[in-house]
Amino acid sequence: MTLEEKHQELRTEYSKTKYNKATNKHLGILRKKIAKIRRELSEKKGSTGVGFAVRKTGDATVALVGFPNAGKSSFLGDITNAESRIADYAFTTLTVIPGMLEYNGAKIQILDIPGLIEGASIGKGGGRKIVSVIRIADIIAFVVDVNNPSQLYKLIDELFTLDIRVNSEPPRIRLERRKAGGIDIEANGHKVPAKQDIVSLLGEAKMYNAYVVFYQNATLDDLSDALDNNITYVSAITLLNKIDTVDRDYASTMAKELEKTTGMPVVQISAAKRINLESAKEAIFSRLDVMRIYLKPKGGAADMERPLIIRKNSTVMDVAKKLHSKTANLLKHAYVSGRSVKFSNQLVGGEHRLMDGDMVTLAFDK
Ligand SMILES: Nc1nc2c(ncn2[C@@H]2O[C@H](COP(=O)(O)OP(=O)(O)O)[C@@H](O)[C@H]2O)c(=O)[nH]1
Ligand SMILES: [Mg+2]
Question: What is this structure's pTM?
Answer without folding.
Answer: 0.78
